[in-house]
Design a protein that fits this description.
Layout (H helix, E strand, L loop, with lengths): L5 H43 L1
Length: 49
């Protein structure tokens, strides 16, 4: 019977965590960028009034 390679399994788990973390960060940045654009437009409308 083959011996389990725990190091490789750990590497796989770490890569999954890293990928999820990057995706979460991208979503957060995208959400913040959308919010910033909206906030920038509102004050410019108020200045024109």
């Amino acid at each position: 019977m083959a011996k389990t390679n725990y190091g490789y399994e750990k590497y796989g788990r770490e890569m999954e965590k890293k990928k999820k973390k990057e995706e979460k960060l991208k979503k957060k940045l995208a959400k913040n960028n959308d919010g910033v654009k909206d906030e920038e437009q509102i004050p410019s409308d108020k200045k024109e009034s």
